[in-house]
Structures are given as structure tokens and as C-alpha cells.
Amino acid sequence: MPYNHYLDAAPEVAQAVAEGRPVVALESTIISHGMPYPQNVETALKVESIVRENGAVPATIAILGGRLKAGLTPEEIEYLGKKGHDVAKASRRDLAVLCARGEDGATTVTTTMMIAHMAGIQVFATGGIGGVHRGAETTMDISADLEELSQTPVMVVCAGAKSILDLGLTLEYLETHGVPVIGYGTRELPAFYTRKSGFAVDYEIDTPAGLAAAFHASLELGLRGGMLVTNPIPEESSMAPEVINKAIDEAVAQAQAQGIHGKETTPFLLAKVKDLTGGDSLDSNIQLVFNNARLAAQTAAELAKL
Ligand code: PSU
Ligand code: MN
Questions:
Q1: Is the minimum distance from the CB of 160 to ligand 1 under 6 angstroms?
Q2: Which residues of the chain are under the pLDDT cut of 50?
Q3: 152 lines ligand 1 (CB under 6 A)
Q4: Which residues surround ligand 2, an ion (CB under 5 A)?
């Protein structure tokens, strides 16, 4: 992607990229819209330290005052966490207007991939990605995250997709758009809160070096898109499928009954699931993000050797 004057890479991030050292991008919608304050800020700061402990430089990404930031200060993370839903959730279609107006935006998987790529960052860790929503055959609600994965060469390490989505259709969409879905140490797509979903991934890879080799080949082949690494939640943090699936079904029914649509759907469902499980899902969510940050940092370190 060409250089652009809206981008501000933090000095530490710019230097690491220039020297070919490992860097891991992190998103900010998960901070402003995905978790409540103050757990969101605590989690975001802890994720950064996990990335460091595993040998990479963290670059939390957001839009602040119309600037595309790759690498935030702890004060900036606190600001985004406290402002919460008052920060615009910024997807691809929002970037130009936010930049032109000098406004703030919390970056989704889509915009975090875009800004990471502009800054020369190849690996990105998050919790869950957006996908094809249940009922998309009539609502056409398909996350821009899937389209971005097909056109931006960044590896996204996530814990699979939540069954607030239609997982089967999400995989079909990714296949159509040529996005490889890798299971880390598993043949089965993890479903975020649980390690299993009943759906198969395309490939199982068992080491950070193996993930790095696959992504390196993708870059060398000049393939346009990214790669989706799905990392199962640690067993001890995973939830009972009956409990979580009941909460998800109830959340989806409430969203339908209240006519929730568009960009509000995902944050609404995430918040409802959290309420319905009495906060247990938030604990699981935090642990799986830590787990993904660890794997992403180790993979970025391997990629830097190739
Ligand atoms: N799914 C989660 N947690 C999240 C999100 C999705 O389990 O925090 C956020 C991510 O930022 C993702 C965005 O990119 O929601 C997708 O929103 P939408 O479905 O509106 O595209
Ligand atoms: Mn949507």
C-alpha cells in the first residue's frame, strides 16, 4: 500500500518494522465496543505486555483525531476504553470521512488489517472476527472483515468465530474469496467460547514456525489476501456448549425482536451474551485474547527469521 500522510506509526513500531523485527497489530473495537470499562483497558494493556514477553513489539491500532495510529500510548488506550461506545466503530467505509473530519474511530478487524498493512505489520491478534450473520440470506449482513481478509495480506490470529454467526456460511464465504482457514493444533474450527464447532478448517498447523512458513509462502507468491489462523480457547477457560449456545440463541432472538441491524448488531449480541452468562463469557473472552496474543507474537518472531 502506498505511503500516506494520515498514518502515524509510533517510533518503536516504525523502528521495529524498518529493522525487520517482529511486530503484532492489535485492534481497538474490542476495547471500545467489545468489553466494558475498566476490563477493556486492563485487557488491552496486558495483551501488549504478553506480546512483548513473547518477543514482539505491540501496535494497538485506532484512529485518533483523524490520524491512523499504529501503536498507542497507555493514555490513548485508557481514552478509548473510557469513551467506549461514544467512539465510532470504524470499518472500511468509515475511514475516509473520519480522516477528513479529524475524528476518532475504534478499528475493527477490517480497518486494523488495513492500517497494519500500511504500517508494514504482517501479523495481527484479536479475539473473534466478524462473519456471515445468521439469517444473512435475507438481511445480507456479512461482515466487511471477510472481504478484507480476501484482499489485504495480513495474518489474523483469532479464536474462531462465535456462533452469533452462521459458521458454515462464514466458511463458505471465505472459501469463495480464497482465504485459507488454518486450525492451530486442530482440524476443527473453534467457536470462540468453545474449542469445537463441528466444522472442519482447511489445514491444521501445529507450530508458530509452521504458521510463519505458510504465510511467508503466501507473501512470496504475491497472493493478495490474508490468512486466518483459528486458535482454540484454552481448555480451562472454555465454556460449556449448552450454556453458551443457549445465551447466544436468546441474544439473537432479542436482537431480532428489537430490530437491531447494521453495525449495531455485533456489539449488541456481544453485550447480551455477556449479560446472559453473568460475566463468565467475559472471563473466557479475556483469556482467549491473551492466548492469541501469545501465538501471534511467537509467529511474528518466526516470520521475522524468514
Ligand atoms: N466478534 C467478536 N468480538 C469482537 C468483534 C467481533 O467476537 O470484538 C468486533 C471486531 O472488531 C470485528 C467487528 O471486526 O466486531 C465485526 O463487526 P461487524 O460484524 O459489524 O462487521
Ligand atoms: Mn454487519
A1: no
A2: 1-2
A3: no
A4: 141
